[in-house]
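Section handout 9: paired folding examples.
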Amino acid sequence: MRSQLKILSFFLVPLLLVFSTISGAQVIDRAPPAQLTESNTTTQVLRNFTDLEQMLAQGPNPLDQLTPYSREKILRNVEWRDGQVIRFDFAVPIEELERDQAFQVYKLFGVERFFPQNFPIGAPLRYENVSPDYASLTESLRKSLDQDTAREKDENSTAVWRETESFYRTQLSALLQPSTLASTSKGNLLLLFKIVDEVNLMTASSRAFSDLKRLHLVLNQRGIDTRRSLDERLLKHMLVQRDLDAARALVASRPHLSNVAIPKLNEEGHFKTSDLSLMVEKRGQLYRQPMPTVKGKIQVLLLVSENCGFCRKLFADLERDRQLYARFSEAHMILISSLENGLPMNFVRAWNEKNPSLPMYMPGKDEQWKTIDAGGWPQFVFLKNGKVQELLYGWRNDGSSKNAIFSAIEKAGL
């Protein structure tokens, strides 16, 4: 049975723009500290759609610096409430423009407080000559992902990414053939990379991962600078897929990634095909080992993400509420860093130094993890003999989540 504390929508605050999605637009749910000081030049701030329409009618404006495709993407995805932008495609100006140009666009919409302090290097990624048939692919992908996400809520669903896989097979496969890529325009090629990147992000598909690596190679062969976010996107997927040899080779070939250390992965213990595996760090090296199981007994996994605001609230409650901490520890709850975090060794190390009785692990490369870690954190997974018995999501501020998880733990006999 699938239970829910509450299905909570969450949005990444735009601090890691290199991993933005096809929809791109992000809801602003909190403001980070001010990160940038610019000259006090007078710039119009758009407060609603009327202001936007008037600016567009008056002639040249900062949005003209964008390509037509990206300009339309910005206009399509912006929303206001009470004179403040609540939805904005943060990644577009960062990808397409030079630093000062991008800041002008942020300032135009009154979101300059979100401007990245460390602006990415590399030439801007210009989405030039994007054809209508390629542009329509983004909407087709979005519809497929939405259908699959809706189906995932059905506890009887067994093919979570059925529509997305069909989209990939019927609409993308032919476009990814080497003979087709050779004549694909730069803008269409960049859009293909973003679409395949999105499929990877959502499904961790091995096929899409192989295609993404091939697209990255084609971009470089065409002389397109991939330092403006594309190298980092590929690296993240390599870490998620646990393709550490490829990640090490990419880092070695990219001076701007030279500060990224990719540890060696060692095997430890005897594995069965059905075993879930965990990764632990020892003296700077990673070791993959079978997850300990107790036959016939229920185990509770707590999946968390380093970038999840609800997880940070749970962490704060665990630090403040000793009863909560003790109950999790008594239940031998196993904390798992989400696959989407890649290899967050510093995050896991810092947690374990502070919480030795409630250790956190990184998941190994297993098909089972892709099924269990399907997004939405924190996620409480009740397992028995390797099979999911119950799922609970979210962490509310009103204390009801604590009561719900306590009841579930007691029901499980832990």
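Moving on to protein 2 of 2.
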Amino acid sequence: MDLVTFLDVLCPGWAHYCSLDRLNEVLSEMGPRFFTCTHRQTLICGTIQVSMERANYSFHSRTGRETVSSYYLRRYGFLLRAPGHRLVYIREDPGSLLPAELLRFRP
């Protein structure tokens, strides 16, 4: 199951309106899970948390200032369908901001 669908079921409105504190508390209680990163075809394990930042978040990269959306398009060729969605990160690696649409639960 993709992470966006899971979050939509767990907390409708997670991408825009729901309480991040409560959502992240529920996700923490679920503990670490395995995910596949579709952009790198890698398996990661950790506790998903939802960030305040969105995919239109701008950061400083080697090529200058760019958004998370433009980075994933340039680096991986992925055009994000929902750049207004909040990014997620792995609690055990807080610097790991990822678009939720690129993660899939592993059984």
